[in-house]
Design brief:
- It is a single chain.
- By secondary structure, the protein is α/β, with parallel strands linked by helices.
- The chain folds into 2 domains: 1-210, Alpha-Beta Barrel (TIM Barrel), CATH 3.20.20; 214-311.
- The protein is 37% helix and 13% strand.
- The protein is built from 11 helices and 9 strands.
- It has helices at residues 13-22, 56-66, 81-86, 117-132, 151-159, 167-189, 218-221, 225-233, 260-272, 291-305, 308-311, and strands spanning 27-33, 38-39, 47-48, 70-76, 137-141, 194-197, 212-215, 240-245, 277-280.
- It has a 4-stranded parallel beta sheet.
- Helix 9 (260-272) links the parallel strand 8 and strand 9 (277-280).
- Helix 9 runs parallel beside helix 10.
- The longest helix has 23 residues, at 167-189.
- It starts with 12 loop residues before the first helix and ends in an 11-residue tail after the last helix.
- InterPro entries: GH, GHL6.
- It holds the Pfam family GHL6.
């Protein structure tokens, strides 16, 4: 959030990397640009967090590489409230002609349109990070297909011989627009770096993604969600990860910390389905990573490492079919 005047005041990238290393972390997904729209590096294209006084992202990449921890650059693609505030014409227009709608206290009360200047803006930021930092990959979040009834989108629908009064045609155009953006991201990232497009259907990202990440906070989303998702995803022929988190309810549940037993259950659930686990966290904006969180994560990963000779590259053998 913008009104954090001491943002990063006590942050140390070296301590950040050491905390991860001590917790047996091998790979971390770090914000280059968040859903609010702020960059955490000295961008020449976007908007740096107003109280960030150093290259937080760059220092994290540098220190993590020193201790053999891979770093992926996180970009929230579907949400960018700073750009939405500055460029209302870059936002999705719903069928009622609104650019702000729904629950204003949540995240998705306005969304970005990829048939606008936002497309090139975000592509240029991704290119900027790809050229400037030795990251292992990119993670694009909130890649959700939102039908847009703005003039540019409806004209695009008509140009493709479809009917702008047909909601299915408008949705199909929005989907193709987002996929076209994704293909350009793939060209920027190249074939040698990881890329995941979180929110798009697996069938639509064939040839674009390098792996699969199944996002699920089971204590908030239900424990029935992951088993069905992984049963499908593990047949796609790529590495699958179970993306759980420290939170009890949802992302950004600050102060929430699941018990070790609860987090360990998620990890065993993943391993029993033949996939490894990543654990999501939100860093304290002033001080950095919470040591208590990583004490728990470290204990869990240490336990899981004992089983890696049997679980690495394991494949689940189905015992029944319907």
């Amino acid at each position: 959030m913008p009104d954090i005047p001491d943002f990063g005041a006590n942050f140390s990238a070296k301590a950040f990397a050491k905390t991860l290393k001590d917790a047996n972390v091998e790979y971390v997904n770090v914000f280059a640009k968040c859903n609010i729209g702020f960059a955490y590096y000295p961008t020449e294209i976007g908007v740096v967090h107003p109280h960030l006084k150093f290259d937080m992202f760059g220092e994290i990449v540098k220190e993590c590489r020193k201790v053999d921890i891979g770093v992926t650059a996180y970009f929230n693609a579907g949400l960018d409230h700073e750009m939405a505030r500055k460029h209302r014409d870059w936002t999705v227009v719903n069928k009622e002609g609104q650019v702000i709608y729904g629950d204003r206290t949540a995240n998705f009360f306005r969304n970005m349109c990829f048939c606008s200047g936002y497309r090139d803006h975000l592509l240029n930021m991704i290119r900027e990070v790809a050229e400037r930092y030795p990251v292992e990959g990119f993670f694009l979040d909130c890649m959700v297909v939102n039908p847009c009834y703005g003039n540019e989108c409806l004209e695009g629908v008509r140009e493709r011989g479809m009917d702008p009064l047909n909601d299915e045609h408008v949705l199909a155009f929005a989907k193709e627009t987002l996929l076209d953006f994704s293909r350009e991201v793939k060209r920027i990232v190249g074939p040698d770096k990881f890329l995941y497009l979180n929110g798009l259907d697996h069938a639509d990202t064939e040839g674009l993604r390098t792996h699969v990440e199944l996002e699920c906070l089971p204590s908030g989303w239900s424990y029935d969600f992951f088993p069905a998702q992984v049963a499908y995803a593990r047949n796609l022929g790529q590495q699958v990860f179970y993306m759980t988190g420290r939170f009890n309810v949802n992302w950004g549940d600050y102060g929430g910390l699941k018990s070790k037993a609860s987090l360990l259950n998620d990890c065993w659930d993943a391993l029993s389905n033949g996939v490894p686990t990543s654990i999501g966290d939100h860093m304290h904006p002033r001080d950095g990573l919470e040591s208590a969180v990583y004490d728990v994560i470290g204990e869990i990963y240490e336990e899981l490492e004992r089983y890696e000779p049997w679980t690495d590259n394991a494949r689940l053998l189905p015992t029944s079919g319907f």
